[in-house]
Structures are given as structure tokens and as C-alpha cells.
Amino acid sequence: MTTQKRIVLSSDHAAIDLRQTIAAHIAAQGWEVVDIGPTSPESTHYPKHGEAAAQRVASGDCTLGIILCGTGQGIMMAANKVKGIRCGVCSDSFSAKMIRQHNNANILSIGARVVGEGLALEIVDAFLSADFEGGRHQTRVEMIDAIQG
Ligand code: RB5
């Protein structure tokens, strides 16, 4: 498991309840949760929330991140625009484990309109319990990062 336990959470309006459930779930596991909102249910724009979370990870302020929107897709696209961010959308726990082990993903994205609460928590646990394996995967991750220049 990752040793530095500081994680940023962010979402748009479509995922506030699930984000707060995840925050409580991982805080109970000992993670220091930096929940950057939003808290009000008014419609908002997922790109700014994805970028804000991604900047926390890219700057080193947080080790990992979890972001959510309706599908998990739009906010993932925004986060991946930030240099150094590797974010994947997961709707199953196998993929959540593998994006840590093979892709060294530093942000997990979840669609709150796609998965239910129970599955979402399993996905989160799989992501947070796995570690990057390095080795041949290190070369491939470096190739991903090099695309951004
Ligand atoms: C908001 O209606 C919705 O478009 C957003 O949450 C997300 O699904 C976008 O990818």
C-alpha cells in the first residue's frame, strides 16, 4: 500500500453524495482526505474540478486523487491534461487494481451515474491497496509521460 496517505477528492454536482461517502470511507482507513468540493448541488463544470484535483497531485501536495462526475469520463479527460497525471476511469475493481500496478495511475475516476455505492467503495479499495510494480511497466509509463513533453 502507498505509504504517504494524503489524497485529494473532487467531483462535479453529479457525484457529491458518492464523493462524500468515499471521503468518509477512506478517512476511516487512515487517509488524510483533502476534499476540495464542491458541496452545493448547483450545476457546475467538471473540467475545473478535474484540473484542481490534478494540480494537487501534480504539485506533490497529495499523493493520489479520486475524482468523480456523472460518467467519470469528462473529469478524467480534464485531469489527464495536467502534466504528470495518469488518471483512469474504473467501473470494476480489477481495472482499479491494474491501473495502479501497471500504469502507475495517480488519480482514479469514477462515474457516479454508472456504479452504485457498494461497487464504488470496492473500486476505491482496490485502487488504494495496490502498488506500482515498476520493471517493464516503468518504461511504458515513462513513454506515456513523454508524450506530453
Ligand atoms: C453532467 O451532467 C455530466 O455531463 C458530467 O457529470 C459528466 O458525466 C461528464 O463527463
Total domain units: 1
Strand order of the largest sheet: 2-1-3-5-4
Unreliable residue runs: none
Number of strands: 5
Radius of gyration: 14 Å
The CATH superfamily is Sugar-phosphate isomerase, RpiB/LacA/LacB
CATH architecture: 3-Layer(aba) Sandwich
The CATH topology is Ribose 5-phosphate Isomerase B, Chain: A
Mean of pLDDT: 96
What is the succession of H and E elements? Answer: EHEHEHEHEHH
Largest sheet: 5 strands, parallel
**Separation of the first and last Cα atoms:** 30 Å
Helix content: 40-55%
Small-molecule components bound: D-ribose
Total DSSP helices: 6
Secondary structural class: alpha/beta
* CATH class identity: Alpha Beta
- Described by the principal axes of the CA atoms, the overall outline is globular
Strand and helix map with partners:
Layout: E1 6-11, H1 16-27, E2 32-35, H2 46-58, E3 64-69, H3 73-79, E4 87-89, H4 93-101, E5 107-111, H5 117-129, H6 136-147
Parallel strand pairs: 1-2, 1-3, 3-5, 4-5
Helix pairs in contact: 1-5, 2-3, 4-5
Bound molecules: D-ribose.
